[in-house]
Amino acid sequence: MMDRHLWELLNDQFNKELYSAYLYMDFADYYHTRGLHGFGNWYDVQVQEERDHAMLMRAWMLKRGETIELLPIAKPDKTITGDVDPLHFALAHEQYVTGLIHTLHDAAKAAGDVDSTKFFDWFVKEQVEEEENATSMIERYDKAVADGTLEALDTELKGRRWKTPSLRVDIF
Questions:
Q1: How many CB atoms sit inside 10 A of residue 57's CB?
Q2: CB atoms within 10 A of CB 115
Q3: Cα–Cα distance between 139 and 141 in angstroms, integer?
Q4: Are 2 and 116 in contact (CB under 8 A)?
Q5: What residues have CB less than 8 Å from 81, skipping those under 6 apart?
Q6: Contacts for 21-28 with beta carbons within 8 Å, 24 or more apart?
Q7: Do the beta carbons of residue 59 and residue 171 sit within 8 Å?
Q8: How far apart are alpha carbons 131 and 137 in whole angstroms?
């Protein structure tokens, strides 16, 4: 059985990953309605990524003989007033999630759960990439606006495709 505190944190993180998918869907919809379909595509891919993170956590719980308690998913609460807002909101959100993942990792270590610690190692590395991507998107957006090349950046972002996570959890 999984340590109760670790289970609670992981169950909560599962829900937060689904919230992240909702948040990024909101950002994607904003960009699509603004005609910035490349930016919309960027966040459509982020939706898939966050959903898959949640599913990896669910699979881990099942592998460990635990189940997820399905909780309500909060509605995104960000008010977007300009095209750059979702990019800044995404960076702040990823920084928040990094803290949550570190808390999970620390709880697994404190519980002496070596297997879960190794599982969360992947998510720690993933969050470094997520923060780098979010920072890069802000920098690229600002440069494209300054250079008058926003349309070219938007076109480039249309080419982003979802890649299945490198982490795999076999449950059967």
A1: 24
A2: 12
A3: 5
A4: yes
A5: none
A6: 21/46, 21/47, 21/48, 21/50, 21/51, 21/54, 22/73, 22/74, 22/75, 22/76, 23/76, 23/78, 23/89, 23/90, 23/93, 24/50, 24/90, 26/76, 26/78, 27/80, 27/86, 27/89, 27/90
A7: yes
A8: 10
Q: Name the amino acid, one letter, at 123.
A: F
Contact 134, 128 (CB under 8 A): no
Residue 46 contacts residue 87 (beta carbons within 8 Å): no
Confirm if 42 and 137 have CB atoms less than 8 A apart: yes
Asked whether the beta carbons of 76 and 47 are under 8 A apart, the reply is no
Query: What's the Cα-to-Cα distance from 1 to each of 53, 66, 103, 113, 119, rounded to whole Å?
Result: 22, 7, 20, 10, 16
Counting residues of the chain whose pLDDT is more than 90, the rounded percentage is: 94
Instruction: State in Å, rounded, how far the first CA of the chain is from the last one.
Output: 18
For residue 69, what pLDDT is reported?
96
Average pLDDT over the chain reads 96
> What single letter denotes the amino acid at residue 128?
V
